[in-house]
């Protein structure tokens, strides 16, 4: 039990950023936490933490040890819950990362519904369009839209969403609808900032690349969609993002027989012999809810890719 206490003191100190924070979380004193961490370092024969007036930082050895120590504590907690027949009531903290737009438009509501189902779970939703390394940032589950899949994580494929060309009714009334892909050259084409000019479409006659140039690019998908809604031009958007707006008549499809490259969505999590129950219920919940978004098709589970 002393080893478990020492591991807990170390992990809490790292994740809360101070020995005093760990002491409060563990309902003990700072000297006790300091003693436990120092004893752990002596038993390992390495220094895990650097202590300074500005706070704590991990040594290289501490960085490698921290993730395994955290998992050991999680496994122990799950084993205790199982032994006490509490395994049917998942509990604890979960950290979920996702792209900003998906989080704002759909995932936030899903998170609230999830918390209603599991009152003993705490959920931290981290919205960021950059790649978030789950190991470095202590993320339990990640939702990834497109991009390369890390080979050392489980990637559960949730489905594919076609991209469709959309514009506002006001824009179409003022500028007309393109009738062929190359008619886009005479229109204002709005695009996400990353990537080259041009758009790849697939239609009845196969794929075609149109060398459109964009006078306006923006690196935020919500801002891009707002621009389309405001009548600034035509844009290629995934169906999960615009299906409701099309149904409401706030957007209209252009070149309805053509689609762009589909977006693929995956759930990423660490490969483990047995997932902690709180992680498992979140994975199952999201797999069901996200796969039901407009245009999604259920996929497969790839172990470690």
Can I get a quick summary?
This protein has 305 residues and is of the alpha/beta class. The protein has nine helices and 14 strands.
Structure description:
The protein has nine helices and 14 strands. A hairpin with a 2-residue loop joins strand 1 and strand 2 (55-58). The strands form three sheets. Strands 3, 4, 5, 6, 7, 10, 11, 12, 13 and 14 form a ten-stranded mixed beta sheet that branches. The chain has a two-stranded antiparallel ribbon with strand order 1-2. Strands 8-9 form a two-stranded antiparallel sheet. It is elongated, with a radius of gyration of 24 Å. Helix 1 (2-16) packs across helix 2, helix 1 crosses helix 3 and helix 2 (19-25) crosses helix 3. The model is unreliable at 297-305 (pLDDT under 50). The protein has helices at 2-16, 19-25, 30-44, 60-83, 100-117, 169-175, 221-229, 239-247, 277-291, and strands spanning 49-52, 55-58, 92-98, 121-127, 141-145, 154-167, 189-192, 199-203, 206-210, 216-218, 234-238, 252-254, 260-269, 301-302. With 305 residues, the chain is an alpha/beta fold.
Please outline the helices and strands:
Blueprint: H1 2-16, H2 19-25, H3 30-44, E1 49-52, E2 55-58, H4 60-83, E3 92-98, H5 100-117, E4 121-127, E5 141-145, E6 154-167, H6 169-175, E7 189-192, E8 199-203, E9 206-210, E10 216-218, H7 221-229, E11 234-238, H8 239-247, E12 252-254, E13 260-269, H9 277-291, E14 301-302
Parallel strand pairs: 3-4, 3-5, 7-10, 7-11
Antiparallel strand pairs: 1-2, 5-13, 6-11, 6-12, 6-13, 6-14, 8-9
């Amino acid at each position: 039990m002393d080893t478990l206490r020492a591991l807990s003191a170390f992990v809490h100190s790292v994740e809360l950023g101070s020995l005093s924070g760990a002491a409060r979380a563990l309902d003990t004193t700072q000297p006790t936490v300091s003693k436990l961490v120092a004893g752990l370092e002596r038993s390992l024969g390495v220094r895990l933490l650097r202590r300074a007036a500005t706070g704590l930082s991990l040594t290289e050895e501490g960085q490698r040890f921290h993730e395994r120590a955290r998992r050991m504590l999680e496994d122990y907690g799950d084993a205790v819950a199982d032994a006490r027949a509490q395994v049917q009531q998942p509990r604890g903290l979960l950290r979920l990362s996702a792209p900003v737009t998906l989080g704002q438009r759909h995932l936030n509501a899903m998170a609230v519904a999830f918390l209603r189902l599991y009152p003993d779970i705490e959920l931290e939703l981290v919205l960021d369009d950059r790649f978030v390394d789950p190991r470095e940032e202590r993320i339990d589950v990640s939702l990834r839209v497109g991009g390369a899949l890390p080979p050392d994580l489980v990637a559960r494929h949730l489905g594919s969403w076609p991209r469709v060309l959309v514009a506002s009714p006001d824009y179409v009334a003022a500028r007309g609808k393109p009738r062929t892909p190359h008619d886009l050259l005479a229109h204002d084409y709005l695009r996400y900032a990353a990537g080259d000019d041009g758009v790849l479409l697939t239609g009845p006659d196969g794929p075609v690349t149109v060398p459109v140039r964009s006078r306006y690019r923006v690196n935020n998908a919500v801002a891009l969609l707002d621009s389309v809604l405001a009548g600034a031009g035509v844009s290629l958007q995934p169906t999960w993002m615009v299906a409701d707006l099309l149904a409401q008549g706030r957007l209209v499809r252009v070149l309805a027989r053509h689609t762009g490259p589909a977006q693929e969505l995956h759930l990423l999590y660490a490969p483990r012999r047995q997932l902690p129950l709180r992680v498992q219920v979140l994975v199952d919940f999201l797999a069901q809810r996200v796969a039901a978004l407009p245009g999604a098709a259920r996929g497969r589970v790839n172990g470690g890719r």
